[in-house]
Amino acid sequence: MERAYRLRTIPPYPFREIAALKAEKIQRGEKLIDFGIGDPDQATPDFVIEAMTEAIREPRTHQYDETGHGYPEYRQAIARHMASRFGVEVDPDTQVQSTIGCKEALVHIEWAYVDPGDIVLVPDPAYSVYKVQATFCGGAAFPMPLREENGFLPDLRAIPKSVAQRAKLLWLNYPNNPTGVLADLTFYEEAVQFARDHDLLLCQDASYVEVYYGEAKPASVLQVPGAADVAIEFHSLSKTFNMTGWRVGFAVGGPQHIEALSRTKSNVDSGTFGAVQLAAAHALDQYAGWAPGLRRMYQQRRDALVAGLRGIGWPVRVPEGAFYLWQRVPQGHTSATFAEELLDKCGVLVVPGGVYGDFGEGYVRMSLTIMAPNPVAAIAEAVERMAELRVTF
User: What CATH number does the domain located at 46-288 have?
Assistant: First the structure.
């Protein structure tokens, strides 16, 4: 039986393919150093697990969550977190939506707004979900190039007026995957004004907002006055609290946009397990004491990788946020051929930039989430292996 047209028009999910390749190499007994998929390698904090242990004993958590937007305790914790971390006041009853991680919410907001023929403005390079879901909805993704000379920010003024007029959504993602850059409040002000001018919804994927280096804290787009009228922002506990497998996150924004997301979700899923929501509420309340240590750990790894690659003559742009290093490939290579050479000759797994879009070509992404007894030592070993290639940039 032939599959649906929508499935025939999209490529395989790239990280599924990378996971299969990694499993094949490991099965053959090869010792890989994995800079691939960005999945935190540390355990979920004990205080979250203890909260989960208590919550799972509550009989109400074993039933459907019939609130529609999430447990009140979780939504209130989200509102407290947005106020203390960003200075943003949100109504927990109308401006907050519990989500099953971030990915499903990114999908469902497109289903809520995009009709066949609509345009979705998508960064390139970017997480593939934004583009793929536009296709699923019968719309079209219009790429916004993220160029190194522009600081990997999209040039909104370069978008043709005819395209902007047909656009329904504008996607942003800062701190950025895969480039590791931040966006400041001035850029968000420009983006909010662009959304107002063209009557579209600004969608900010803030999955990595708590992974940053230095004194400048990444902003929330909702810090721009009036942004909630035209914006919705997606947060995840996956990266902040090492909870990728727990599948818990949240969306915040204008009531009309939260309601659109909630209405879509109510026809597709039954919400996040209640005990997970209660544990997530406790996690957010412990954020201030937890997050600085997490950032120090990633900064130690970032600094080790940057210093190591520079030491063997590689030109490196230092990541400002997220836990990725976006590395230009050497002369004579494409993203794919360089990733293949690193894997075959060095046993080092990286992600070729081309999987993030046409403008990702010429780069590879290296994640700082390394499954190893001593990740810093593993970084040093990887650099030692890669030094043997003696490549020219």
Answer: 3.40.640.10
